Amino acid sequence: MKRKDIIIVTLIISLICSLCANFYFMNRKKEVEKVPETLPKEIERKWLIKEEDIPYDLSKADIFEVEQSYISFDPEIRIRRINDGKFYTLTIKSNMSVDGMVRDEVEYYITKESYELLLSKKEGITILKTRYQFVDENNVKRCIDIFHGELSGLVYLETEYKSEEEANKDVIDWAIKDVTSDKRYKNQSLARYGIPSDE
């Protein structure tokens, strides 16, 4: 086995071990007084929108061209190539709440070589999208994803929050619908099954 193969396998094993440790402590909630928070939380809501209805000037946003693939759907392990290889990331998500809003998430920067090795093991399609990231008039950080290729026509507004209370207060009255709790609109589902049939 090549050195780079050993490194990336070691990385994946260590990440999966972290997930297993988290699952173990979550399952022992009744046995221990304090459950350690081993992984950071992602608190996010997602809306399905129409590109022509976007009320923001996207020319002022930070723009990222994203190629997103999955090397595992369960646990969810995602890799990204961003801005034609300017940087690469590996992300693991787990323990999604019933409402789809909260998940454990860990993310790492990886090398081009590691990305290419992992890409050869991908499941489903590679998602292509342009991400526009900006802060709105209420000082809220927003992301708009416009999809391309097999997912062309799909547009999302995503927002991450510091708390569930903050998330629940957010209102996007110009969106088509809130799809936070609809698993069919999660990116990993899009990579497996494509655009939901009701669109």
What is the CATH topology? Hypothetical Protein Pfu-838710-001
Report the CATH architecture: Beta Barrel
Q: Which range best describes the helical content: under 10%, 10-25%, 25-40%, 40-55%, 55-70% or over 70%?
A: 10-25%
Low-confidence stretches: 20-36
Quantity of strands, as a count = 9
In sequence order, what are the helices and strands, one letter per element? HEEEEEHEEEHEH
Total helix count?
Answer: 4
Mean pLDDT: 86
* Count of structural domains: 1
Question: What proportion of the residues form beta strands (DSSP E)?
Answer: 35-45%
Distance between the termini: 45 Å
Morphology: globular
Output the structural class: alpha+beta
Name of the CATH first level: Mainly Beta
Side by side, the strands of the main sheet go 1-5-4-3-2-6-7-8
Structure write-up:
The chain is α+β, with helices and mostly antiparallel strands and 199 residues long. The protein has a single domain, classed as Hypothetical Protein Pfu-838710-001 (Beta Barrel), CATH 2.40.320. Helix content is 23%, strand content 36%. The chain has an 8-stranded antiparallel barrel. A hairpin with a 2-residue loop joins strand 2 and strand 3. The longest helix has 25 residues. About 9% of the residues have low confidence.
